[in-house]
């Protein structure tokens, strides 16, 4: 009898300990996620991001394939060839206009405070603050309220300007930023090739962009167990092979 009681108590203790470890692990993961979101000033939860473009790849930047909610506070959008395209950054917008030669109309940008899209003509930008930017060494954030932009610049540094000033700065930075991005993307594509061979079902489909590749992977369940960074790597690989 004593032995049975001892075993029962021991099993209860094991179950309780396992539950405690699980709860602690879950709590640690939540804390880690919140810290990551805090470090990523640009990020917002997916439910707070407005996606103006449509289609299977609407979650991703049309140029680089980056996750739009993850870099939402630097999102831009424009009407291109009768459709809305959404970009993770002003860098990608410049790429589409200057490098790809697209005619961009009705350009909009996310207001850092309200998280709503506003016409760039009504935006005040802070260029070169200490807050990390997207796809550029020189950050560029937009505000609907000029006073808010000035307060942001006072706290974090940077120059207060309009869209034209921010656009010209992005053009000036474009070559250096593109070289930096190309190097990082090349390394990610190599990792993507390894992840694809290990975790994905093979496909012969050709993709014109990382966004298109990522959307196909997700829609068809091509790869298992990929986090957002790994998915980006696979998307880069598939779009380049």
Descriptive report:
With 241 residues, the chain is an alpha+beta fold. It has one domain. It is built from 6 helices and 7 strands; from the N terminus they run αββαββββαβααα. The strands form 2 sheets. It has a 4-stranded antiparallel β-sheet. Strand 1 and strand 2 form a beta hairpin. Helix 4 crosses helix 6 and helix 5 crosses helix 6. The chain is globular and about 50 Å long.
Secondary structure elements and pairings:
Layout: H1 2-39, E1 76-80, E2 83-87, H2 90-99, E3 105-110, E4 117-119, E5 124-127, E6 140-143, H3 146-156, E7 159-161, H4 163-199, H5 210-220, H6 228-240
Antiparallel strand pairs: 1-2, 1-3, 3-4, 5-6, 5-7
Helix pairs in contact: 2-4, 4-6, 5-6
Summarize the entry for a quick read.
This protein has helices spanning 2-39, 90-99, 146-156, 163-199, 210-220, 228-240, and strands spanning 76-80, 83-87, 105-110, 117-119, 124-127, 140-143, 159-161.
Please state the structural category. Answer: alpha+beta
Q: What is the count of structural domains? A: 1
- Biggest sheet record: 4 strands, antiparallel
Low-confidence stretches: 1-37
How many strands? 7
Mean pLDDT: 88
Protein traits:
single chain, 241 residues, alpha+beta, 4-stranded antiparallel beta sheet, 3-stranded antiparallel beta sheet, 7 strands, 50% helix, 12% strand, globular, disordered N terminus
């Amino acid at each position: 009898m004593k032995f049975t009681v001892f075993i029962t108590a021991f099993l209860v203790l094991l179950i309780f300990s396992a539950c405690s470890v699980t709860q602690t692990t879950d709590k640690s993961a939540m804390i880690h996620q919140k810290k990551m979101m805090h470090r990523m000033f640009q990020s917002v939860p997916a439910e707070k991001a407005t996606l103006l473009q449509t289609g299977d790849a609407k979650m991703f930047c049309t140029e680089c394939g980056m996750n739009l909610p993850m870099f939402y506070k630097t999102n831009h959008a424009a009407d291109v060839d009768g459709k809305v395209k959404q970009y993770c950054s002003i860098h990608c917008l410049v790429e589409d206009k200057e490098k790809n030669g697209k005619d961009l109309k009705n350009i909009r940008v996310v207001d850092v405070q309200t998280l709503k899209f506003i016409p760039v003509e009504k935006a005040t930008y802070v260029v070169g603050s200490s807050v990390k930017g997207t796809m550029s060494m020189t950050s560029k954030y937009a505000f609907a309220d000029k006073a808010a932009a000035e307060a942001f610049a006072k706290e974090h540094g940077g120059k207060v300007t309009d869209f034209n000033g921010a656009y010209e700065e992005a053009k000036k930075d474009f070559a250096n930023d593109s070289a930096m991005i190309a190097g990082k993307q090349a390394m990610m594509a190599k990792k993507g090739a390894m992840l694809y061979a290990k975790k994905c079902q093979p496909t012969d489909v050709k993709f014109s962009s990382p966004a298109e590749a990522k959307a196909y992977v997700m829609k068809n369940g091509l790869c298992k167990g990929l986090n957002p960074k790994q998915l980006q790597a696979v998307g880069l690989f598939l779009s380049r092979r």
